[in-house]
Amino acid sequence: MTNQYQLKSTNDMKVYQTNEIKNIALLGNDGSGKTTLTESLLYEAGIIQRRGRITAKNTVSDYFPVEQEYGYSVFSTVYHVEWNNKKLNIIDCPGSDDFVGAAMTALNVTDTAVLLLNGQYGPEVGTQNHFRYTEKLKKPVIFLVNQLDSEKCDYHNVLERLTEIYGPKVVPVQYPLNEGPGFNALIDVLLMKKYSWGPEGGAPTIEDIPAEEMEKAMEMHKALVEAAAENDETLMEKFFEEETLTEDEMREGIRKGLVTRSIFPVFCVCAGKDMGVRRLMEFLGNVVPFVDEMPKVHNTRGEEITTTTDGPTSLYFFKTGVEPHIGEVCYFKVMSGSVKAGDELTNADRGSKERLGQILVCAGANRQPVDCLNAGDIGCAVKLKDVKTGNTLNGKDCENRFDFIKYPNSKFSRAIKAVNEADTEKMMAALLKMRQEDPTWVVEQSKELRQIIIHGQGEFHLRTLKWRMENNEKIQVKFEEPKIPYRETITKAARADYRHKKQSGGAGQFGEVHLIVEPYAEGMPDPTVFKFGGQEYRMNIKGREEIDLEWGGKLVFINSVVGGAIDTRFMPAILKGVMERMERGPLTGSYARDVRVIVYDGKMHPVDSNELSFMLAARNAFAAAFKDAGPKILEPIYDLEVYVPSDFMGDVMSDLQGRRALIMGMDSEAGYQKLQAKIPLKELSSYSISLSSITGGRASFTTKFASYELVPNDIQQQLIKEHEADGDEE
Asked: In which domain, by residue range, is 506 found?
């Protein structure tokens, strides 16, 4: 892959110690400017000689063809900057909720989140989602307001909204002097200086604060000093005595507050013009927590792993990228100990040995070899023979495994088919390879629906998969609506009998089965007597089998045949016939569940009776009884949570009611409304597209399977009709 920028030539990349390493996740909504900020950070650190532009398709992030095609980040980009004898490993994450897997991964292997905001819009739904993940994972957060040079930027409104949502912990460290196209200066209330820039940005001019801004700056400075002092008793005492802290004390206080999430500092940049970026790097280098100041990670056995170089070597592989001409690039974090080029390690998940011929540090598609990486550092390796995402490689006498990344449930599913059937196998192999890169893909080969279903995070997520399949793998594919895994059951008891008789030449076939079906619920007593058409049928139970069905629910099978009407040896064949019909229910061909079947009579022939005859007789008798037993179709119902800005609430609710959803509750959370509902899976099929168009992409949702419930009668009739039209009836 050719990139049009050069990496700084460094053959002797410095080896950093654990207490010189900071790991940072760069998050933000689409359009907040992460890719542009990355260019400025790398340029300021001297890693690249000139800044790339998205429009020119020459940026360090977004270097994959699919990203350049859509002008949108699809993968996270791992890079590092060296600043002031510190190494900052930064993972730039895609903004879209469709690619949330990359953000989750990054937050799990970094120690601080920088949440980038577009100065025109302030906190958006993506900001909320990302913040929620940082909350779950207890990671420090820095807010960074970008695009201060845009017409519509309103910094004070952004600050107000942040405080509204996240409370008094939001503390500004900087504010702009002149927003809009003329932006070129800001006040830093930590250092109490004015920073201004020429048209090219870069190195600032640092001056005293002008007299007219002094009052406002002092007020903000005091609030910052107070917030910094709050996290340390000694600092608090000093603050009460002297009402001020030194710069170093403030840094110390802010760092502690970041670790405990009791302060969320706000910074300003204009990434497009490279203004404020140097100052941000200073802060990241000097103030954000080091790897060893963060809470400890645990291995799968629950043991605490201390991030030190003198511990045993353990590497966790958190991301796999597949690149043209190179193949798999495997990214890892050194969880403990240190790793050197040429080390031989053991894969704890796969039991294989792996030699790391070369270890590399990254700046997007550019990589440089390094001799050694210490605990807490992030690097990558190529040409590994047996390493998958989520694997752990250990040195001698070490048996760590890590499993700390939990991904959200999928939100959008489509059945996928190769246009040319002969490509199906190739397509499956490509899908499994893509899942390595993005664990939020779930590939399901559904025996029940006879479809290959791809579950992802949204419509765009699936669109990128299709693009890559067709452009990178050269396999033409098409998407279809996935079928719904309906279930069938019955609501009352019914009786049927069926005689299977076939006579042709030699031995014939004969089997007759009389059976009763009824709905089954857990803990029901065994049946004793049934009445049908004025006739009484008494049960005399000889054998009982309870089968937990792999698709949920139960089948209870009772042998109540007296007087040897059917030989016991035919009972397994009768059960098999019933099971076959349970697998393809009589109404729609869906799985049947929660049924009790009592075989109470029948007939045999001394010569012509065999297993096949009884299996076919049972299958047909069961289908006939089932249709008389008030059969019902059940559909999967999901719990739905929608996070929506208040002004769209009415539209979202009326859309949900049109989807047969049942609203269960509402409450407000951090400036947004949270709506809880139960909704049939069928109605969720294109929900993400609909929600996005109603709210202009400003809402998000999660779903979780809840239960199976009866479908309304009109829908049941329609489903039966469709099934009959498909000619699936046997």
From this structure: 488-630
